Amino acid sequence: MPAKIKGAFALLLLVGLGLIATMVYVSLTNGEFDITVKDIVRTLLRIDQNRDHDLVVFEFRLPRIVIAVLVGMGLGVAGAVIQGVTRNGLADPGMLGINAGAGVAIVIFLYFYQGQIREVTWLSVMAMPLFGLFGGLLAALLIYLFAWKHGRLEPQRLLLTGLAIASGLSAISLFLTLRMNSQDFEMVAVWTSGSIYNANWKYIVSILPWFAVLMPVVYARSHTLNLLQLDDDTVRSIGVRLERQKAILLLSGIGLVSACVSVAGGIGFIGLIAPHIAKRLVGSAHQRILPICAIVGALLVLTADFIGKTVFSPVELPAGIIVAILGVPSFVYLLYRRKGRM
Amino acid sequence: MFIGSFSVYNPLVRMIIITDQGNGVVEVMFKKLTALVMACALVFGLTSVAGAAPAANSKREITYKGQVYTVPVKTDKIVIVGALEAMEDALVLNFKPLGAPTTGGTFPALFSRITKGVQGIGEKTQPNLETILKLKPDVILTSTKFPAETNEKLSKIAVTIPVSHISTDWVNNLKLLGDLIGNKNAATQAVLQYQRELALVKKALAPKLEDKTVMAIRIRAGNLFIYPKDVFFNPSLYRDLGASVPKEVAAAKAQQNLSLEKFAEINPDYLFVQFSPEENADQPKALEELQKNPIWKSLKAVKNGHVYVNIVDPLAQGGTAYSKISFLQALKQTKLYKGK
Amino acid sequence: MKFKATLPVLLLALSPVAIAFALTLSVVYGSKAIPLDTIRDALLHFDPDNVDHQIVRHSRLPRAAGALLIGAFLAVSGALMQGMTRNYLASPSILGVTDGSMFAITVCMVVVPNAPMLTMIFYSLMGSAFSVAIVFGLAASVFTRLSPVSLAILGTVIGTFLSSVAAAVGMFFQVSQNVSFWYNARLHQLEPNMIKLAIPFAVVGLLLAMLVAKSITMLSLGEDVSAGLGVKTTAVKLTAMLSVVLLTGIAVALAGRIGFVGLLVPHIVRMLARVVDYRWIVPLSAAFGGLFLVLCDVGSRFLNYPFEMPIGVVTAIFGVPFFLYLIRTKGGGMRARKN
């Protein structure tokens, strides 16, 4: 790529990282508990060992920030992958049935097991994310298999199958949630809207491997994603090997989203919006789109969580709802500006 | 009996005591009732558990549901998180917590007696951890319904005890709070009073309930709901007062929506209706609409005037000490109890 | 235009018989066992003091009639949407119409806590109209050539947005589950006066649908073709949308969210009757939609005995496999086929 573009891209990356750093700073220093910036720095550097300060910084604020950044990155990148592979700018990772599958698994978990687990153990803390992860993966694989025809994965069919399976799964959750008492129902509602309220270090550790493995896999295939944007005939002439690359990309996307959904619930729209913003900023090369998607995603979730926990404080609203409320109008505006054919 | 010897500021409990003292027959009946022997044993047993002597240092141990919790000697700074059961217990013992959950940003009117000036700690679903930390509580009471990861976080702020949401634990729950706030006696007395009162009401109602169908339903958004036999006010009706369990209630695994047609088939003789807490109890529009329905009008309970609406605050959970005591009190004012 | 009319005529002629049969089933079989002669008495010699008579008159009859009407409304809406957008996926539940109404109901439950049924129905109607306006407005103004997939996704996006706002409001005021009840478990609450209320909407909506049916047929052949044939595209689309808002709006308001009827029935009609003319598709969809929902409603009483299955779950049992089948055969092509 030309040096000029390279320079502009580097600048953009720096600005993006700077913005994330600012948001991290804001999230770290603001909250219900009164703690001075100096105390936070002293706590972080382990100079001051005040128990309350440790709790606020290391247990309440930091895990949420880290999860927000990770989930935002994961969903943003997965969004770019899924839009790239399906060649549909309206595709959202949530539509691959992962959110719906994870949602049903969580409903089943809350309906049958909640309140029966007494001790707080590693397993009990991880039970909900694990249920969500398996539910999400199962649904995604089911959809993946349905969309497979004549040895070929047709992306449009993948999206539609996602819609169909999701509507079927939501009928199952409906059946169960109508029989829950209202407190359990509220829990499900919070989960399905997507919330990182329960962020903790165990969650972070559990999703890091996914990121470590899948992010490089995706990034290494940026070129494939670029190729896929060409028209059908060109893509076909390049050959069958592309099918395999497509499958790898999609499965990686599914893996990333499942990991994110397992700890953050059904946060939607990040994967839908981030690629559009990224394309406006850096054009169509995925080598540049992917990192910007990660940054935009992280910023969106960080900001949404911050708004959700401060605006109505001490009442907290799930981050996913804030993302939807802020994201959709801006998304529609983005589309309106482009006014192209989708 | 030493009933009058300590002061309980809770008007509810006091009312029971006064009624009781004014009735000499009570003492005689008291000995004859096996239920009360059980109650005594229960209370005695609990007293001995809670009586685990405070250690010499500033800590003591509390046993609740087989778990031992080490708490400070004085534990009157309590934050209640999410557990409405614990809020109701606090109401019975007239105890003001340090922080309590809000509904739509405010405290429900039911708890107004104990929430004046109390810090709201956010909604039930996502309590604000930093607010709770700021309050520096001695003990946090959560619910067994809470996700394990939230309980784990709370336990880093202070000793966190998940209060059981299962109705059969109501005595344990009340005793736990009594123990924590250093007023075991009040808790014991409240339980004892309830048992005694119950025995009387049960005896008086037994002939009226025989071969009759009694049900408690909740109306939510115009729908009729029934609950399993140990949820809602069902424990009061079936376990405590000994009414027979209708087969639909026995079949309900969770909150269950019932069509009016099905309900007409069950056709209960006595009916207790509670609104959903979100609905305005002063303007029962949902009920008014139901009352206009010809099928509703042709129900036995409706025809004979045995429908009792919201005799307890709709927010009351049903299986807790507060709910049981209020229900019993309210029941005594009904036609079902007073009538022939 | 000419078409072979024997098959559709036959189907249309047979449908009243099938509907009558389904309605009889619906009145005779309920959660309470009522002997046949009691049912006959209830209809002929009504005794207000008899619970069984009251059940027949005030629960089973309105419910059967309601299911018939609602099924017809949803199916006709679906047919119109599919024809108008040349999109085989278009249907009320996929395009986010119900979410708009859900949003309005949530607002209503918070702002007017004890709203009587009629007020709620009014809010619900407004909400449906609102979301239809947004989705179709965007589809018409921003994306001029929208593939079926993209329209479906746009509907889902707008729907998710509206339901997120509703969720935020509902969560804050803790009415989420009540909203959910309002939405998913209402068919058995139908009362005679609500059915009466629906009649004028039905008449206007169905008349409008029939009025534009011919033009919709041409639209469904492609806009270039229809313009060549002198169809006033905008006027036709607006009329069709008005009909959809009325029909879907009142259906959602009466019985809540019932998915798949609008998607599934028009396709079945096209398959059975082998027609492309909407002057046949619209009335046949009405007949089959009503029939389908009445039968689903009968099923809902027995699938989870002694309790009832939410009707949306029953329609999903048929709907999801059919949806998958459609995707399998029609794929996700950028343009919908004309039928």
In whole angstroms, the N-to-C terminal distance of chain A is 28 Å
Pair of chains with the largest interface and how many residues each contributes: A-C, 53 and 52 residues
What is the first-to-last residue Cα distance of chain B?
Answer: 32 Å
Number of helical segments of chain B?
A: 17
Task: Give, in spatial order, the strands making up the sheet with the most strands of chain A.
Answer: 1-2
Strand residue percentage of chain A: under 5%
Rg of chain B computed from alpha carbons, rounded to a whole number of angstroms: 21 Å
| Sequence stretches where pLDDT stays below 50 over 5 or more residues of chain A | none
Query: Which structural category fits the helices and strands of chain B?
Result: alpha/beta
Q: Compute the number of strand runs of chain B.
A: 12
Mean pLDDT score of chain A:
84
> Tell me about the biggest sheet of chain A?
2 strands, antiparallel
- Rounded average pLDDT of chain B: 80
- Please describe the biggest sheet of chain B, giving its number of strands, its sense, and whether it closes into a barrel: 5 strands, mixed
Overview of this protein structure:
The complex is a heterotrimer of chains A (342), B (340) and C (339). Chain A is mainly α. Chain A has helices at residues 3-29, 37-44, 51-86, 98-112, 122-147, 155-177, 182-193, 201-220, 222-228, 232-238, 241-264, 270-282, 286-310, 319-338; strands at 148-149, 152-153. In chain A, strands 1-2 form a two-stranded antiparallel ribbon. In chain A, helix 3 (51-86) runs parallel beside helix 8 and helix 12 (270-282) crosses helix 14 (319-338). Chain A starts with a helix and ends with a helix. In chain A, 54% of the residues are buried. By secondary structure, chain B is α/β, with parallel strands linked by helices. In chain B, 51% of the residues are buried. In chain B, helix 1 (11-21) packs across helix 9 and helix 9 packs across helix 16 (321-331). In chain B, the strands form four sheets. In chain B, strands 10-9-8-11-12 form a five-stranded mixed β-sheet. In chain B, strands 3-6-7 form a three-stranded parallel β-sheet, with helices on both faces. With 339 residues, chain C is mainly α. The longest helix of chain C is centred in the first third of the chain and has 35 residues, at 51-85. Chains in contact: A-B, A-C, B-C.
